[in-house]
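Reply to dn_fold:

You asked what the input looked like. This is it:
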Amino acid sequence: MDSIVVQGGTALQGKIKIAGAKNAALTLMPATLLSEEPLTLTNAPRLSDIQTMTALLQSLGVEVTSMQDGKVQVLSSHAMTSTTADYEIVRKMRASNLVLGPLLARHHQAVVSLPGGCAIGARPMDIHVTALETMGAEIELKDGYLHATAKGGLKGARVPLRFASVGATENVLMAATLAKGTTIIENAAREPEIVDLAHCLRRMGAQIEGEGTSTITIEGVDRLGAATHPVVTDRIELGTYMLAPVFAGGEVECIGGRLDLVQSFAEKLDAAGVAVTETADGLKVARKNGRPSAVNVTTEVFPGFPTDLQAQMMAMLCTAKGTSVLEEKIFENRFMHAPELIRMGADIEVHGGTATVHGVERLKGAPVMATDLRASVSLILAGLAAEGETVVSRVYHLDRGYEHVEEKLSAVGAKIERVAGS
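and this is what came back:
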């Protein structure tokens, strides 16, 4: 397996282009299942997860054409051959479950394996199932697969979500576009990726109101058509690279960055002594006065602090002045990066869903192992601040969510390289 080798101690200077959002693209791609006409996505990220979703859609009979080095994806579902999402593909990625709603909406049936992905908690499917059953679906779990039918099609309904689940909101939103009547999603998730999905579906002809709020109203239509849609900027990649100069020193401009995508995160950076400045092309980030200061962080659903930036923030706080407390409220098992940071000299105590970080003056390079997608990049960032060499192994996680990390960081002065595994 490949490793990433980082030599710490070099200040960064320059610009990093932020890619299209992984989590948005993985939601937009299944939207093609709702129409016989092509869906064209621009600003698509080039990631292994995109390849996995491509393979899943192709297994259903979707034609996928990649252009401009993968930045443009043209998808067409005019000749579907299957409504079964097989375990061998679905197990690789949690977002595979997002074919369930569209398949039920257009084909009135679906067989979808229970999904996989990073080991950061159970993330059960019961919210998805209950919501779709409210719309008239009959769903049974057999041999690890959800067998779903909607005889006569899905019907509009009031769908209260017991938790503001992003995936469940996306599945119901897509399903409701072709349902008979009006669907009202209550306690809907408000993430930018959901707003982006609604904008795409509207371009396809859907009637949607309220995206970005906790109540989304969808009036079902008979059919959806062709559309071209640009994938929104990846707010998690944005936040990750905003932290790079905080670890290493210097100043980095994140091209394509928008403050509204990372408002709560930027507020924590400001409290920690980090300057975030809006520019004509994005966001510029630099330390205000040397080491950052300790801050407390609690992960929450959007617009709160993102769980997908918690690992990176913990790594930053390892060298902050003072003691910080991080509370993880979204996923269990999401402090698995803490023991690896401790190997680099960090002082961290974990008790259940709370981690206490006592800042130290500096970290020291060490061999460490990535445990999940966001943990892997947090260790690379920590390596930028560490004395000596850090070797991050098992970086196959990294390629699921970040395109060309070593190239982007090298371009602003980081000493980083990928070493191919044997």
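The radius of gyration is 21 Å.
Hope that clears it up.
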